[in-house]
Amino acid sequence: MKGSLILIALISLASSASAFVVAPRAARWALPALRAEEEDASDFVGAEAVSALTKDVKTVFTLEDVHKILPHRYPFALIDKVIEYVPGKSAVGVKAISFNEPQFMGHFPERPIMPGVMQIEALAQLAGIVCLQMEGAEPGAVFFFAAVDGVKWKRPVVPGDQLVMEVEIKSWKSKFGIAKASGKGYVDGKLAVDVGSMTFALAK
């Protein structure tokens, strides 16, 4: 009887010892996860700091200004604001991409992507802001696409992105109301769309 009690005590002691050995191992496995959480917390900068990244970006034309120049309206008004502008030469504009826009209902329901043709249209509208303030044109006039060449898409543009575009007017024939321009669009500093040449004409 005494021998049985001693054996039970030894087994109990061994089990307790195993528990003390296993527990530190489990803790060691948990350490990397804890460190990762600490690193993630240290990377957090907050909304104010992120918002301040664009504090030096000035708005040249607000949305209301853009609507005074372009005839486009919802759901095809694709320029939210202009942040750089050189009369008769170039402009930089911004389009914030929102899931609430109607094209994403069908393009595509499970993977919303801004249609490439709408990216080109946005660039054309930005070029229109420059051209419709040049000699021989007037704000609010309607202009048509005549040609597009050398288009390359580099990455998808999706809801949540800000498409920052630039256009350069290559030629403007005020007598005929015909303009040629090139354009590029960027998301997070990376090229998304590149248009080598686009031609459009004022409606007569």
List keywords for this structure.
single chain; about 200 residues; alpha+beta; 6-stranded antiparallel sheet; globular; cytoplasm; lyase; lipid metabolism; FabZ
Describe this protein's structure.
The chain is of the alpha+beta class. It has a single domain (57-203), classed as Hotdog Thioesterase (Thiol Ester Dehydrase, Chain A, Roll), CATH 3.10.129.10. Helices cover 34% and strands 29% of the residues. It is built from four helices and six strands; from the N terminus they run αααββαββββ. The protein has helices at 2-43, 47-51, 63-69, 116-131, and strands at residues 81-86, 90-96, 143-153, 162-173, 178-187, 190-202. It has a six-stranded antiparallel sheet with strand order 1-2-4-5-6-3, covered by helices on one side. β5 and β6 form a beta hairpin. The chain is globular, with a radius of gyration of 30 Å. The chain starts with a helix and ends with a strand. The model is unreliable at 4-28 (pLDDT under 50). Pfam families: FabA (PF07977). One of its GO terms (cellular component) is membrane. Its EC number is 4.2.1.59.
Q: From the helix content, strand content and strand pairing, which structural class follows?
A: alpha+beta
Write down the overall mean pLDDT.
Answer: 87
* Content of β-strand: 25-35%
> Low-confidence parts lasting 5 or more residues at pLDDT below 50?
4-28
- How many H/I helical runs? 4
Tell me which CATH architecture applies here. Roll
Q: What's the number of extended β-strand segments?
A: 6
Supply the CATH class: Alpha Beta
Sheet with the most strands: spatial strand order: 1-2-4-5-6-3
Rg value: 30 Å
Beginning-to-end CA distance, first to last residue: 113 Å
Sheet with most strands: 6 strands, antiparallel
DSSP helix fraction: 25-40%
Q: How many independent structural domains? A: 1
